[in-house]
Amino acid sequence: QSALTQPPSVSGSPGQSVTISCTGSSNDIGSYNYVCWYQQYPGKVPKLMIYDVTQRPSGVPDRFSGSKSGVTASLTISGLQAEDEADYYCCAHSNDYSLMFGGGTKLTV
Amino acid sequence: EVQLVESGGGLVQPGGSLRLSCAASGFTFSNYDMFWVRQGPGKGLEWVSTIGTSGSTFYPDTVKGRFTIARENAKSSLSLQMNSLTAGDTAVYYCARKLLRRGWYLDLWGRGTLVTVSS
Predict the structure, then answer these.
(1) What DSSP string describes A48-70?
(2) Do B104 and A103 touch (CB under 8 A)?
(3) Measuring CA to CA, how many Å separate A77 from each of A5, A89, B23, B46?
(4) Are B6 and B30 in contact, with CB atoms under 8 Å apart?
């Protein structure tokens, strides 16, 4: 069982917005801003989409945004496109040198 | 080209051992913390180990005492020695590089190598 909880699946229509949640605890998401999101297509390697809760690496479209409230982090994808259909994993760590991933959310467009 | 290439995966019996390797190229390997992350069949991502630039190592409880991560900067190489393997260790094992900033964010991943533990 993952230490970070994500919904197994979400769906949306092209052009709409969807939000994927990631719930942790006061020991990780609730206390630190070390939260990230990865996108993974079937059979492909994960790609970093968001780090430090809200930051996008170079090349990631600004349709992808991150946020956090309490012990829950969220990834919002606006203006959904067919190419956004993938699995999304949140990640978090604290100062105890352990890295956690969520169980993953399958986005269907 | 900036890349990571894993090797060494294969079929191993329960209780057996396997050593994975990761060859880095296109960047200054010694400047980066490196990770192993695995993904079981149809499952999510799972952190396996970390080695810092100074050689400090970190493991989750699930592999601590069984797995050993090491690096050889002169060869731009990362390894993972896996002992006492169980069926639960069956997964694709990815080598990954940490972003050059605070936070354990992985910005470069290899394509992975499959480890199957079965009799």
Answers:
(1) EEEBTTTB--TT--TTEEEEEET
(2) no
(3) 19, 14, 35, 24
(4) no
CA B27 to chain centre: 18
Helix (H, G, I), strand (E, B) or coil at B89: helix
**Tokens of residue B43, six digits:** 């499952």
Mean pLDDT across the stretch A94-104? 89
What does DSSP assign to residue A25? -
pLDDT at A96: 77
Q: Nearest-CA distance from B21 to chain A in Å?
A: 17
C-alpha A82/C-alpha A16 separation (Å) is 11
Q: How confident is the model at residue B42 (pLDDT cuts 50, 70, 90)?
A: very high
pLDDT at B21 over 80: yes
Q: Do B105 and A101 touch (CB under 8 A)?
A: no
Residue of A nearest to B94 (CA): A45
A9 vs B: CB within 8 A: no
Q: Express each pLDDT in A39-82 by its tens digit.
A: 999 999 999 999 999 999 999 999 999 999 999 999 999 999 99
Provide the pLDDT confidence category of residue A2 given band limits of 50, 70 and 90: low
For chain B, the first-to-last Cα distance in angstroms comes to: 39
Place of tokens 């609730």: A30
Could you say which of B35, B50, B109 has the minimum Cβ distance to residue A45? Answer: B109
Q: What is the dihedral sign for C-alpha B6, B51, A37, B27? A: negative
Q: To 10 degrees, the CA torsion angle through B21, B11, B46, B4?
A: 30
From the CA of B74, how many Å to the nearest CA of chain A?
26
